[in-house]
Design goal:
The protein is an alpha+beta fold. It has eight helices and 15 strands.
């Protein structure tokens, strides 16, 4: 079946008409979905009956190598027993809602910051695919920011200033900004990575800002000035005109391009209502670029 895209905002985010991704193997259809990702950055699929194995298999068909060194793995094993399948949930190993002082819950609070998946690794994450299994009986949205439009609307002087700069990304930095404490051994496993501040899609030539709460400093600038510039760019990129909010339903699968979007989870009563989602992220193997060392 040929994919039909229904834009949710002008040229950003689209819902795709009924396709069973678990059963999708046709290379032409997969290629059309990738072209849709290039155009819209975020694609929404309803009524997907994914198993964990099925979600992993689809991600590999769609985009190849999977990201398996998640930041939270530094705290211990994944309850799903597969680090390529990130557990974006508020339940513990026994299926109980986590206590408010649970260390994994405290770590995951940083998902409410604007961020880009796996930007703290090299190669970084390319496509993330988040599957909703259990959702609360009220809105618990995920918001997405259009980083292509954020770049397009920067003034010419700022574009010249930031083009060619590189940023160090650390998942420890985003968590520490909220007061989370790591052991020395945990920090040793979370050294971070360096990436360009502006990325280019090689298939379309479209440019986008590459930001995240994980961004610690601009390598070519003194730390105070670099962090102020990063803060200004974050403020610009997350204006409401660039943001789409997705309200989850059971069976939703949302795919987004980490090289052209940021996202954040919105707060909900996570101490009362269960929410279980599974995320798989692919690696940006072809686009990985050399950068200065930290």
């Amino acid at each position: 079946m040929k994919p039909v895209f229904r834009p949710l905002r002008t040229q950003f985010a689209a819902e795709v008409a009924a396709i069973d991704l678990m059963q999708l193997y046709d290379p032409d259809t997969l290629a059309e979905l990738r072209a849709g990702m290039d155009q819209y950055g975020v694609l929404v699929f309803r009524d997907q009956t994914f198993t964990d194995a099925g979600q992993l298999a689809f991600a590999e068909r769609f985009d190849g190598v999977l990201h398996s060194k998640t930041g939270i793995s530094a705290l211990g094993r994944n309850r799903l027993n597969n680090e390529a399948l990130a557990d974006i949930s508020n339940v513990d190993d026994e299926g109980n809602i986590r206590r408010t002082d649970d260390r994994r819950r405290m770590y995951s609070l940083a998902n409410r910051l604007w961020h880009t998946d796996a930007s703290f690794q090299d190669p970084a994450g390319r496509y993330s695919m988040l599957s909703a299994r259990v959702v609360p009986p009220f809105d618990a949205d995920t918001e997405f920011a259009d980083m292509k439009s954020a770049w397009d609307t920067l003034d010419a002087a700022t574009r010249r200033q930031i083009d060619g700069l590189h940023v160090h990304h650390s998942i420890a930095y985003s968590r520490q900004s909220l007061g989370f404490e790591f052991s020395p051994e945990e920090l040793d496993n979370l050294k971070g990575a360096i990436h360009p501040l502006v990325r280019t899609n090689p298939r379309t030539g479209r440019r986008s800002l590459y930001l995240a709460a994980h961004a610690t400093r601009i390598m070519e600038m003194p730390v105070p000035e670099g962090r102020l510039l990063l803060r200004d760019l974050m403020d610009h990129a997350t204006q409401r005109q660039f943001v789409h909010a997705h309200a989850w339903r059971p069976g939703d699968l949302v795919i987004w391009d980490n090289l052209a979007t940021m996202h954040r989870g919105r707060p909900f009563a996570d101490g009362v209502h269960r929410r279980e989602l599974r995320r798989v992220t692919t690696l940006d193997i072809e686009l990985s670029q050399a950068a200065p060392t930290a």
